[in-house]
Amino acid sequence: MQSVKKFNIEEYINLYYIHDEKYKTVSMAMYLHRRLNRAEVTKNALLAKVLARGTEKYNSIKAINTHLEELYGTLYGLDVIKKANVQSLCCTVSNISGRFTREDVTYKAARLMTEFVFEPYVTDGAFCDAYVETEKQNLRDDISAIVNDKRSYANLRLIEEMCRGEENAVLECGYTEDIDSIDSKNLYEHYREIVFSSPIDIFVVGDVDINKLVASFAEYFAKFDFDIKPFEIRGSQKNVSEVKYVDEVMDINQGKLSMGFRTGIADGDEKYYALLVGNSIFGAGAHSKLFNNVREKMSLCYYASARLDKFNSLMVVSSGIEFVNFTKAKDEIIVQLDAVKKGDFTENELEIAKEFIINSYTSYLDSPYLMRRFYLAMSFSKNKDTIDEAVQKVASVTKEQVEAAFANVALDTVYFLKGGEADR
Fold first, then answer.
1. Is a pLDDT exceeding 70 seen at residue 2?
2. Euclidean distance between CA atoms 326 and 332, whole angstroms
């Protein structure tokens, strides 16, 4: 069994240590949390790219790579992620465990991780012009490329339409129309505004001398004057008034039907695990009703699946269809949802659905990345269950609990991406 320990380094700066000796690496991640804000998401997304280009000490990719080789091929990365109403700037490093090397480079890797964020490459009170301009174009390309994956694009557009006016509608990757106004100076000014005022969580997965590592972080952070402003982490809790239908036309051969439901079950609700099991029965895998009935038996979809967003109390169904099958596919998806609501599933379906979730949870134990992701979500959540506790609660879910959890699931928005000549 893995143990998880939380250390408070400074006010609103916490470190979570997930100890496991089976990993051959030490995986670390540092998250700076910002409340999702349309006015700054693009700057934050660009900032992650610019910070990755160099530190005060290692101010080029060549210099960074040389140092990484000295650290036995340590890997690093910077990105932004979105969870609940939070956009987090994330810096990660992964190094070989000191159990397999002459020198334990974990502490040097941790120092490099902090230097990427707190000691960036700066010239004349601004970020490097060349780096900023290059990364502005890379960000444009990344945002433009979203539309190339039509399945993901349809789901993003669904959330935009469904959650319009809510924080959850904001895209963490930013917006192309914001990019031109950003330059090396105002981006650096934005960086200075957020870097010492944002809550910080650090996650360490592996086998280290944790007391020595915590002391190292504490010593490093002590030289900065933090004025961290915490904010409430919350999701969307909107009720459905009427179903919204949104069509978008594009030059495509396969329609993308995305349907957004409000579950009515907030983060921390004791019904969540029953909802999770119900979602598994409904649409989370090859054992589900959507797969076996809508896709296999009725051939209405090329694919059909459902996923939950527990922080925003949402369930999203994603499917690929022939344009002419819009109404049939939409209606049959609702039929399968109603079947779960009515308890129209066997004990065998229930057990297979629970086994699917339990296998997913236990697979986290083999991946430092998934472990970090699980415990990051836990740090945001009112639910503090460990993986073992989550497994036990899933295993105990009953048919009646699934029916009760699905009782208030309601369709909110239907988004259909179709071809130019297509009709519903």
1. no
2. 10
Q: Is the pTM of this model over 0.90?
A: yes
Per-residue confidence at 237, pLDDT binned at 50, 70, 90?
confident
SS3 label, residue 310: coil
For residue 421, pLDDT over 70 is answered with: no
CA distance 169 to 87: 12
How confident is residue 235, by pLDDT bands cut at 50, 70 and 90? confident
Q: Which residues contact 187 (CB under 8 A, 6 or more apart)?
A: 43, 46, 47, 50, 126, 127, 132
HEC secondary structure over 50-61:
HHCCCECCCCCH
Token look-up 């998934």 returns: 370
Cβ 233 vs Cβ 31: under 8 Å: no
- CA separation for the pair 177, 175 (Å, rounded): 5
pLDDT tens digits, residue range 247-273?
A: 999 999 999 999 999 999 988 899 999
Distance CA 424, CA 419 (A): 11
Segment 28-55 shows an average pLDDT of 98
Residue 124 CB-density burial (10 A; 0-12 exposed, 13-18 middle, 19+ buried): exposed
Is the backbone of residue 319 left (phi > 0), alpha (psi -120 to 50) or beta?
Answer: beta
Which tokens go with 222?
């002590």
pLDDT band at 213 (very low <50, low <70, confident <90, very high): very high
Residue-wise over 22-60: b if at least 16 C-beta within 10 A, else e? ebebbbbbbbbbbbbeeebbbbbbbbbbbbbbbbeebbe
Closest CA to 20 of 276, 374, 260: 374
Question: DSSP assignment of 317-382, as one string?
Answer: EEEEE-GGGHHHHHHHHHHHHHHHHTT-S-HHHHHHHHHHHHHHHHHGGG-HHHHHHHHHHHHHSS
| 3-state SS assignment for residue 171 | coil
